[in-house]
Every structure is written in structure tokens, then in C-alpha cells.
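Quick one:
INPUT:
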């Protein structure tokens, strides 16, 4: 039942052609990001083997980039909860 509601909502805002194109674009973009991971890893390993510390900074940057979407989702979930709690009262 929930899936049907979701599909009805998607039908209201975009047709299947646009949705298919959007999914294809996202899949294509993830292919590019997967191919770059080996390059980043090789660059960091070569840098650390040379005795430099740029690799540690890159690892910190990766953790920062990984955490931001989770923090954003958490903030929006809290705001949504507060809004719905106010409507219920």
C-alpha cells in the first residue's frame, strides 16, 4: 500500500521517461566515483610511503564528506518530527 502511494506521488510529479533518465544518470555517475577510488588509494599510499602526511589529511576529508549527509538527514528528521508534533497538538 505504501509503495502504491509512492508511485502515485511520483506519477504526479514526473513521468516514467524522466524518472528512467534520472536513474540512468545516477548509475552512470556512481560508475565514475568507483573508478576513482583506486587512484585516490594509490596516491595516498605513495604519499605515506614517501613520509609525507597529506594522506592523513585526505582521510580526514573523506570522513568529513561521509558525515555531512548523515548530519543533514538527522537535522531534517528532527525538524520534521517537531513540525508534526506541533500539528498534532
Amino acid at each position: 500500500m505504501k509503495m502504491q502511494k509512492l508511485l502515485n506521488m511520483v506519477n504526479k510529479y514526473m513521468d516514467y521517461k524522466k524518472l528512467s533518465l534520472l536513474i540512468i544518470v545516477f548509475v552512470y555517475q556512481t560508475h565514475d566515483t568507483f573508478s576513482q577510488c583506486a587512484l585516490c588509494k594509490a596516491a595516498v599510499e605513495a604519499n605515506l610511503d614517501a613520509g609525507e602526511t597529506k594522506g592523513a589529511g585526505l582521510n580526514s576529508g573523506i570522513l568529513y564528506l561521509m558525515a555531512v549527509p548523515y548530519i543533514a538527514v538527522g537535522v531534517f528528521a528532527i525538524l520534521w518530527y517537531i513540525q508534526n508534533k506541533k500539528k498534532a497538538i
